[in-house]
């Protein structure tokens, strides 16, 4: 029986530490790295404001978790999760 390798998990923090969101995603990933130890298949990455430069990094991941601050019109500090096919639909609505 062949064992499947562990999925490549990317935890990506997005944001500008000098702008209105205060780099929420970047700071979240920094805090995760400071507080916890992750297995080798989990990569924490400061994506900052790199945009398209992150494409290869994202493409190589089997699982992607993104931390970012987006104005969904919710109460400050509210968590909004977008999963699977809803990611594309959510992006289209924001444009």
Give the proportion of residues in helices: 25-40%
Distance between the termini: 47 Å
The global form is globular
Roughly how many Å is the radius of gyration?
15 Å
Main pleated-sheet profile: 3 strands, parallel
Overall structural class, as computed from helix and strand content, comes to: alpha/beta
As an assembly, this protein is: single chain
Arrangement of strands in the largest sheet: 2-1-3
The number of helical elements comes to: 3
Order of helices and strands: EHEHEH
Q: Bin the strand percentage.
A: 15-25%
Instruction: Please tell me the overall pLDDT.
Output: 86
Which regions are unreliable across 5 or more consecutive residues at pLDDT < 50? none
Please tally the β strands and state the result: 3
Describe this structure in words.
It is a single chain. By secondary structure, the chain is an alpha/beta fold. The protein is built from 3 helices and 3 strands, in the order βαβαβα. It has helices spanning 24-35, 55-59, 86-94; strands at residues 9-14, 42-48, 63-67. Strands 2-1-3 form a 3-stranded parallel β-sheet, covered by helices on one side.
